[in-house]
User: Fold Flavin containing amine oxidase from Lasiodiplodia theobromae.
Amino acid sequence: MATSEGVHWTPQDGIKTGLPCIGAIKPAKSFSQSESAVFDVIVIGAGYAGLTAARDLTTQGRTVLLLEARDRIGGRTWNTTINGFTYEMGGTWIHWHMPHIYREVSLYGLQDDFIVTQTPGGKEDYCTLITGDRRTNISHEEELSPTERSMLEAIILQMAGGPLETIGFLDALRWWALGGHTATGLNDIGLTTRLRSGQSALARRMFDHAKSTGRLSYAFSTAIAGVDQERGNEGVVEVRPRSGGGAGWQARQAICTVPLNVLQAVSFTPALSGLKRAAIGIGQANRGNKVHADVAGPELVSYTAFARPGKGLVCAIADKETPGGDSHVVFFGPAAEVEGGMRLGGSSGVEGVREAVGHVLPEGSEVKRLVSFARC
Assistant:
């Protein structure tokens, strides 16, 4: 199975669009009852929030129609597997300090599926700080100099993705608190452990659980135009698709889990509150990018780097050795409007991504594979 999303590049094959993913749903539509029937609940969005709602409702005896614009489950949290290695395209690192996600992990028997992605003791076991054209290698024993600010800014940009002026201070404090108010704790929850089988394996278990009840209907590759509580019969909500010219579907209740940056494309009747409309107009501050690279040889399995401002990417974090013996490195960068940011899939193309990756890697590194996904 494969999704139409994502980009994969190698020197041999060039750019290919679409990635293997067990979260891709085929066939795209399936109805456990007539499409014209009134469902108990329509759930819009098949990310973790939507999957949780669909699973909980169907297991409690409700009929549910799950609508999703993408061709797969998982939303912005999903993985692809290439040559036996798992690349997390969105949310990656999870921890038992995160009670909601860990509840799902343990429910589906994945509590022993955790792997530690950091590998100390490699040949390049240091952190590189890049300030403009200056590169400084910092050992674990050394204290930082006045360049701390550049490193701190790069870390925050990696966490939040948006301009420093719009990043929520309380959200940064929340990350700090989840890590037990220590730098090592923040590292543990945010950069250390992930699922060996990938986030899509967990999402697939949730989806299959709901499907097994016989009360789940679904339609993927189906973008939504509007949610109307006044058009249909009293006590019924109508949800209209963006294309196809159909009248839409009806339910007694609707749950909308559409990402904030996409909500502008959905109309609501009656209109949402002024405060909600204002938030939708602003959108989400985090518009950051994520790129995977396989770098020739195992030498970089312990590598870390921060660049400020960077050339599109500001952070490189080593994440295990691939089955082929290469170093897998994950890169993060801010949105295009931020100094040192870039737009994936934009005019810069793959050469721009290669330049951004090369800027944060040690000189002479050979990039053998790039995998990326334009998040919304």
The chain has eight helices and 21 strands.
